[in-house]
From TrEMBL:
Family membership: Belongs to the calcium channel flower family.
GTP-binding keyword on record: no
Keyword set, alphabetical order: Membrane, Transmembrane, Transmembrane helix
Pfam entry (one): Cg6151-P
Record localization: Endomembrane system
InterPro entries in alphabetical order: TVP18/Ca-channel_flower
Lipid bilayer topology: Multi-pass membrane protein
Transmembrane segments: 22-46, 58-77
Taxonomy, superkingdom: Eukaryota
Single biological process term from Gene Ontology: vesicle-mediated transport
GO annotations of cellular component type: endomembrane system; membrane
Name of the protein described by the UniProt record: FLOWR protein
The UniProt record lists the keyword Transmembrane helix: yes
């Protein structure tokens, strides 16, 4: 979607639209290299780029993909750039959510809160007994 929207964005006279379109096509190429290297088997360095991208942490991928997707929108705010970069931005958001980790359950949080409350009460009673 990013590549097709970038190509469509290049069919204009406005230089900012052309720059945003070229950047979007570059984004699509980088996403293919990092996420689906089997689509780029004819490129020699595709596996090396994919291996390097796999070593990145999830929050680093999130920042990279979201930053790549926001730049063309800042260059030229049109529906084509918004819809074309939506998938790349969504990929970054999903990596960001995975970086946050798994959601905890309410029971474990209630136990932790109860233990902290008991410890606070014990400390309070210990200082009161020490003063008397």
């Amino acid at each position: 979607a990013c590549a097709f929207a970038g190509l469509w964005n290049c069919v204009t006279i406005n230089p900012l639209n052309i720059a945003a379109g070229v950047w979007m096509m570059l984004n699509a190429f980088v996403l293919f290299l990092c996420e689906a290297p089997f689509c780029c088997q004819f490129i020699e360095f595709a596996n090396a780029v994919s291996a390097r991208a796999d070593r990145l942490r999830a929050w680093q991928k999130a920042a990279f993909y979201c930053g790549m997707a926001v730049f063309p929108v800042m260059l030229s705010l049109t529906l084509t750039t918004l819809f074309g970069n939506a998938i790349a931005f969504a990929t970054g958001v999903l990596y960001g959510l995975s970086a946050l980790g798994k959601k905890g359950d309410a029971i474990s949080y209630a136990r932790i809160h109860q233990q902290q409350k008991q410890m606070d009460e014990e400390k309070l009673t210990g200082t009161l007994e020490g003063q008397v």
